[in-house]
Specification:
With 153 residues, the chain is α+β, with helices and mostly antiparallel strands.
């Protein structure tokens, strides 16, 4: 029975110490002091649009122009024509002397652009002679300027 009373005594003493510390801190920061005189307050008035004052004119500063100046003109960039590249895959049949007997388009990218030019180019070539002729598969790469490319259908 002695222990519960002892606990209550220590708890009460600890509470008193904490309260004393709190009062001391509040008093030290001046939060418990009474103000000596009334605080001064100033009335605030809302001004109508007609009563408002232009502070820029009062301070004799020039007012900035509300419209920004037009942006400077920029010369258009001259973009060089981009070259278009592609390929044509041909199957070429030759005679024994290496002259082209037959040429046929197998694949092309982009289709319908370079095929005629590739056929003309290959028909002018001479291939290594083979006994009895032979068949070649050749990929012909192309790179031309855009004004040489026919329009796509």
């Amino acid at each position: 029975m002695n222990r519960p009373l002892q606990f209550l005594g220590f708890a009460g003493a600890a509470t008193m110490v904490v309260l004393a510390l709190m009062v001391g801190v509040l008093w030290g920061f001046g939060l418990l002091d009474q103000p000596e005189d009334e605080l001064e307050t100033h009335p605030v008035e809302l001004l109508s649009r007609t009563d408002r004052v232009d502070l820029g004119a009062l301070l004799s500063r020039e007012r900035p122009d509300p419209t920004p100046p037009p942006p400077p003109t920029v010369e258009p960039l001259e973009i060089p024509a981009r070259q278009v590249s592609g390929f044509v895959q041909l199957e070429v049949e030759t005679d024994a002397e290496g002259r082209v007997v037959r040429a046929e388009v197998v694949n092309a990218l982009p289709a319908g652009v370079y095929e005629a030019r590739a056929l003309r180019q290959v028909e002018q070539r001479r291939y290594p002679p083979r006994e009895g002729g032979g068949s070649y598969v050749e990929v012909v790469p192309f790179r031309v300027s855009p004004d040489e490319v026919p329009p796509q259908p």
